[in-house]
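Memo to structure team: turn this sequence into structure tokens by end of day. - J.P.
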Amino acid sequence: MGRIEFEAEGLGVERAVDKLRAAGIPVLWAVKIRKNGVRIAVGGKHRKKVFAILRGTCYNVTKVRARGLERLLAAGAKVAGLFFGAALSLALVMAAGGRVLRIDVVGSGAYYEAEVREILSRGGVELFSAPPDDPSALSARILALPRVSFCTLEKRGGVLTVEVEVAGEPVPLQKGALVCPADGLLEELVVVRGTPLLSVGDEVKAGDVLVADYALYGQEQREAEVIARATVRYSVRAEYGLSEEGALFRAFLDYGELTEIHTEQTEKGWLVMGVAHAAVSLNFG
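Reply from structure team:
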């Protein structure tokens, strides 16, 4: 059977042996080593109980040594700890294989790397994130960049490769801000470059700046060409002195495609009610 040996120091340290015996712990031997010090040996299985008893006393316990089987068990525990640590590291490495550890933007459109990384980030794809659930949605947004004609996303191991190809001659980007086209409710706002000043669901007025022509880098503000699009929904109520079919066709010419359409006959013709969607974009595809 293994044992542990330890030294205890303190005034009246001899009484430590009595405390252990009173608690039912067999003391194998005890030797006084100096005026206020004693070396004690007990069975290894009593280790936790011994320290629990002496922790609440005024004795200072030092130089704990394992002997016999107890020493072998301690060594085995150390080896098991190393094995567990290695197994855990291996598991973490394997788990990391399902994460994005690097993002490479390649192809003739690689100069769009900053915009591509921003699109990925808005889609929840960043370093150490899971790969995209719907790569086609991200590809569609990248394809909306000026001159981009082809885009694929492929993940191998921990590397997500985004291939971007451009076609045609470079077209200079228009300068300025993206401005609201009508009074209503901001229904959609997609920003690739620039700083959005309003959010989807906000009430807007015609002429409001939706996306400003600058980008923020920490506290620094730098001029940037806007690449963005927006859609504003607003209510339509128009009366036409025509047949119902003619009134609907004329409303389509005036406002574009309407949703939530209702018609009502009036003394002069037909009243068309519905929701129109005004779209605006700048350098977006």
